[in-house]
Write a structure and sequence with these properties.
Layout (H helix, E strand, L loop, with lengths): L1 H25 L6 H9 L3 H22 L8 H17 L5 H13 L1 H20 L5 H23 L5 H40 L1 H24 L9 E3 L7 E9 L2 E8 L12 H7 L16 E10 L2 E9 L4 H9 L1 E5 L4 H4 L19 E9 L3 E8 L9 E5 L11 H4 L2
Helix pairs in contact: 2-10, 3-9, 5-9, 6-9, 7-8
Length: about 425
């Protein structure tokens, strides 16, 4: 009798396990928009990757031609772009005739020779008109250090001379001082750029127009390729700093740090009906009903900034990598962390966001970061956690990044922070 009961219990447990496994298998795996687009339209992943890289190249030349003064004295940044772009163009040499024409145009126009020439002119102009001898972000770092260290020493001495409650307002003033200085310098720099932008453009118009001309060629190439693949153009959204290009639909615009940003999609040829959006993507674009905060639901939309380049908490370059499949491990890691508010604002951490470096929401829109935390994992490893505002698609994303490229990642976390 006992053996029969045990056998029944065993059968029940086995049945429950099988049901559980079946339910797990039935759970749909969340995919990115690019993955859904590839599957819905039967596209080759390499085709979408190629479009993204071409947009990267177009956005660089557009941004450089519009905001050249942002690149003065940044030889390393220019070199990084040059290497990335040359590497990509090299990969196109075995491609279609249209790609070969892009390469030939790039070489004939001697674009990076033009970039270096314009940059050198911008440095001479900034030195002459404003006495600028170094990048503004580098100047801000130095000044912050020069202000913070003496203030810290003064505060240390005062702790032995006056009661602790008198130190609180003094401490507040000390904390505000670097921010006030930083704000003043930034406002001065933005004013300088605004006052001299047109004059600098006029002096270098011929060379800048060469960059813009190639940007236009690239955008037309991308548009033609998307039409050839029958990709709904209304799904491909991107940011430029100029409205000087043809066959684009302006969908939004804003000004960030005195720099205009225009959000575009590609325009269909005249008389052509828009391609229908796949049902899967239509569903993804609809607002998602979110659970109330505090419901205990684990977050899942994690992005890790891999191959990060940067020092002292300032990120210079990175590759955003979606980590949906690792959400459980990341949540477990975060549960083992202590959190503190970052002493740096997001625009200090990534100064060129979203002009040069961009993090996208799952729907393809630019993510707007409104919260920065510093996470300490078991007092062994510190990293950033950026939280976005809720996007129009209803989602929020959470972005993890090392704080310094030299930081050693603990063995247990390498699978999370690796590309």
């Amino acid at each position: 009798m006992n053996e029969t009961e045990k056998e029944k219990d065993s059968n029940i447990e086995t049945s429950e396990n099988q049901d559980s496994e079946t339910e797990e298998k039935k759970k749909p795996e969340k995919k990115t928009q690019a993955q859904i687009l590839q599957e819905a339209l039967g596209l080759d992943p390499e085709d979408i990757a190629e479009v993204e890289k071409k947009l990267f190249v177009a956005r660089f030349f557009d941004y450089f031609s519009e905001e050249t003064l942002d690149f003065i004295y940044k030889d390393r940044t220019i070199e990084q772009y040059k290497n990335e772009i040359n590497k990509f163009l090299e990969s196109l040499k075995e491609g279609k005739e249209e790609e070969k024409l892009l390469i030939r145009s790039f070489e004939d126009k001697q674009l990076f020779e033009k970039v270096h020439k314009i940059k050198k002119s911008a440095e001479a102009y900034a030195l002459e008109k404003g006495g600028v001898k170094q990048p503004v972000d580098k100047k801000l770092k130095k000044l912050s250090l020069l202000i913070t260290l003496p203030l810290f020493l003064v505060l240390l001495i005062l702790t032995f001379l006056i009661p602790i409650w008198f130190l609180i307002p003094i401490l507040c003033l000390f904390c505000m001082a670097p921010q006030l200085v930083r704000g003043r310098i930034l406002r001065g720099w933005l004013k300088f750029k605004e006052e001299h932008k047109n004059d600098f453009y006029s002096q270098n118009r011929e060379d800048i127009l060469v960059l813009k001309d190639y940007t236009g060629e690239l955008l037309q190439n991308i548009r033609s390729r998307l039409l050839e693949m029958k990709v709904p153009l209304q799904l491909i959204k991107f940011v430029l700093h100029s409205r000087d290009y043809d066959n684009l639909n302006l969908i939004n615009q804003r000004v960030v740090r005195g720099s205009a940003q225009y959000f575009f999609t590609f325009e269909y040829p005249e008389g052509m009906e828009p391609f229908p959006i796949p049902e899967e993507l239509l569903q993804q674009q609809q607002p998602v009903i979110k659970e109330a905060e505090g419901s205990g639901k684990a977050e899942k939309n994690f992005i890790v900034l891999t191959e990060m380049k940067g020092k002292d908490g300032i990120l210079e370059n990175f590759i955003p990598t979606l980590k949906l499949k690792m959400a459980e491990q990341i949540n477990d890691m975060l549960n083992e962390c202590e959190f503190s508010e970052s002493t740096k604002e997001f625009d200090e951490i990534i100064p060129n966001y979203p002009q040069e470096l961009v993090i996208y929401c799952l729907c393809g829109d630019v993510a707007e970061i409104d919260n920065v935390q510093v996470c300490s994992w078991k007092n062994q490893f510190k990293f950033y956690l950026f939280e976005s505002t809720q996007c129009k698609c209803g989602e929020k994303i959470y972005v993890l990044s090392k704080m310094d490229e030299s930081d050693e990642i603990p063995e247990e976390l390498k699978v999370i922070f690796s590309s």
